[in-house]
Amino acid sequence: MTSREIIKRCIHFQDPPRVGMYFSRFGHDDTIDVFDFYLRDEHGVDPWGITWMVHPDFPSIGMPKAPLVSSLEDLDKLRAPDPKEYAARVAGTWTGQDPFRPTVVPASVPVLSLKSLTKAQRDKYRFVAASCGIWEVPHNLRGMEALCEDMLLNPELAHRLIAFCTDFWVNFLRELAPLKGEVDALYMFDDWGTQQNAMIGPPMWREFFAKPYRRIADAAHAMGMDFWLHSCGRVTSLIGEFIEAGIDLLNPFQSGACGYEEVAQKYAGKICFLTTVDTQSTLTHGTPEQVLAECKRLATWKTPHGGLIVGSYSYDAPEANERVVYDFFKL
């Protein structure tokens, strides 16, 4: 059974032979990122027109230099990425200008596309990394504080800005129609949690985000693709909302903050998880013995029929601790 088939079975609870592996650190990754939207040009501008600042002494994704949206009128000036162009980039057939470079890989690493995959890579489960999603792009364009205020005081602006971003992803997925069966998932990144709870409660999330996420999920499913969501922090109160919105896989790297026992009791078997032991405490600062103890708690998130993919975090995580996780779950 190929890696691609194993991951599909994990996600859809179809009795995979083992837990899925996302351990690039140890050369055991059942998945491959065939295209990544974490792009910037030489001036730090991304495909949405946002200019990013990165401190030279602290390499990171950075933060937006200034909001582009101050009023409803500014929405008409925004230009989303071209869905046709980015579908062609995924396919490897884009021949136009290319001012962008991925921000998450060294410059010496070639940019992937479906066309460039080797035979071995084609046996892996293939996803497109969407970078910031329909929560993060809006607050990058507007400013987080302003967007949160909008949801209370200026809901029209909030709804329109979220719809502007959602429309791009729906249209992009439709443009992938000639590649149906070639791309397995859209992997979106929206950090919804603080250390204690979700940033907004379920009622407000349903008002502003349930339908937009459902639109994207439906467009992905129409293409035969899964919809993945990365979301850090304690997002436990929103997991049920994610499931209702059609999300197939959730990637909460702060598994301990979410609550091992609570998540297992409420959601094991209802959505697939891509995760590891808690990345802000045990994995990065604990002992191998403490990591092993949490591996046993994390294992309750899977079912006899699947539902768990375990991966490396790498950022500040000691190799010895990640090796404990890998050895525990690879069996």
Description:
- The two termini are 16 Å apart.
- The protein has one domain (3-329): TIM Barrel (Alpha-Beta Barrel), CATH 3.20.20.210.
- With 331 residues, it is an alpha/beta fold.
- Strand 10, helix 9 (236-244) and strand 11 (249-251) form a beta-alpha-beta unit.
- The protein is built from 14 helices and 13 strands.
- It has helices spanning 3-11, 72-75, 83-91, 119-122, 136-142, 144-153, 155-175, 202-222, 236-244, 255-258, 260-267, 282-285, 288-298, 319-329, and strands spanning 20-23, 28-29, 31-36, 39-40, 52-53, 63-64, 101-102, 125-132, 185-189, 226-230, 249-251, 272-275, 308-311.
Keywords for this structure?
single chain; 331 residues; alpha/beta; nine-stranded mixed sheet; two-stranded antiparallel sheet; globular
SSE blueprint and pairings:
Blueprint: H1 3-11, E1 20-23, E2 28-29, E3 31-36, E4 39-40, E5 52-53, E6 63-64, H2 72-75, H3 83-91, E7 101-102, H4 119-122, E8 125-132, H5 136-142, H6 144-153, H7 155-175, E9 185-189, H8 202-222, E10 226-230, H9 236-244, E11 249-251, H10 255-258, H11 260-267, E12 272-275, H12 282-285, H13 288-298, E13 308-311, H14 319-329
Parallel strand pairs: 1-13, 3-8, 8-9, 9-10, 10-11, 11-12, 12-13
Antiparallel strand pairs: 1-2, 4-7, 5-6
